[in-house]
Amino acid sequence: MISHSRRFWIVMIFAGWSFDFLFWKQLLGINFAIFVSICLIAGITLLGLDGIRAARNALFLLPLIGFFAVMTFVRMEPMTTFLTISATLGLIAILVVTYVGGNWPRYSLVDYAVRLFHLYTSLFIHGILFIQQTRRQKNAASDEENAGGRWKAFWPVVRGVLIAVPIVAIFASLLASADLVFAQRLDELAEIFNLDRVPEYIFRGIFILIVAYFVGGAVLHAATKSQDGEQEWRFKPKLGFTEAAIILGSVVALFSAFVIIQFQYFFGGEKNIDVAGYTYADYARRGFGELVAVAVCSLVLLMALSALSRRADRRQQYVFTGLGVAVVGLVLVMLVSAFQRILLYEAAYGFSRLRTYTHVFLIWLGLLLVAVIVLEIIQRQKVFALAAVLAAAGFVGTLSVMNVDGFIVHQNVQRTMDGEELDIEYLESLSDDAVPTIADEYRSAPDSSALHKDLGRVLEHFANSEEFESERPWRSFHLAHSRAVTAIDGLDLPDL
After folding, report:
1. Global pTM exceeds 0.90
2. Up-side HSE of residue 257: CA atoms within 13 Å toward CB?
3. Residue among 237, 240, 239, 252 nearest 322 (CA)
4. CB proximity list for 269: less than 8 A, separation 6 or greater
């Protein structure tokens, strides 16, 4: 438990002030990574001073947290930014709930849900409980005497300040009359304490205290609730083997019929689709979202039946495993179909953000399904939660590393070189992540080609945008913006 309350709240208020200093009227940039670093260093240091050490497995989360925090100012594409921030906060939450115990790799999905819910409640109530405990300790007789002594020492300070203020004001007025530069500096200082900004200062002060309180709640939770006791959160199996087998068997039969049709019409090629009365583009456009939904729901169904159904002997376990593997195998075939549909989309209409997200998501969902098959065969179903966390981190990490907007530019330019039309307006709607790739493609295109002129127009659009021309303060420094500015400055763009 935290023993030094004054030190604790001073550090937490500093964390709240740093949030205000880094983010007030600032764009997202390096400030998020700095704030995350301040909170982690402050929390780990405070806990260490009270002899609370992090488990080795918990410390393994720090490199992942650092990676995603850094990516928030490396990539500017909106979805990548949202996911990297979410991944950073999510991993910090896992670090907090397992700080002392370090058993997060062995958590089940229920463990994650229950422990994260406890963390959520701690953010609101743990600070109040800590304040009440501190007050009870200070009500002891010895503490009351010490407190009285402190108050006696405090009142002379108050009286001294009240007497000094008018004296300093008089001298400052005389010195301002004697020197215009000094007078200007006093005016600038007075503007900071402008009465018109008092509501703003009040709001920011309250917000600093709120941030300090929530960060403090997380640190207190790590100190008192992250030991990872022996209790396991399990649902008592209530569903019989027969019912579970019928459910899985019915799903296998339905999925098998669907896959047979898929082989006949979709995997058979464009000719079979045309015979069925559909064009290739129409067939690709229909059902993609439904196939992904079926894959996700099948995964949830299998995990629920695995947790809630009883298997009395080894034979029943083998049957259940066989049906589960069959379901996942058929779902993988459906994912291949969905993946081919997204490839058709991309070939027919080019690449977009949504199609790129889906492209990457299908790959990681397929890997997760393969992991489910392996875990079901070796009877390690509880490790599924770890596999899901790693798959989610892999999905977000892939989007961060690949540079979604730069990937879109490169792929669409390649389509243009094969005779397709380039959507200039869509390229202009992308983030600064796209600019270095556009600049590279611009330099590679023949000077007299239409592609060269089109890419030049896109670069001119970025160069003349109001946000692009404005300078960012250091708190809002963003590597993607800096690289975009450098890429355009290195080009000799003609007037288009």
Report:
1. no
2. 5
3. 252
4. none
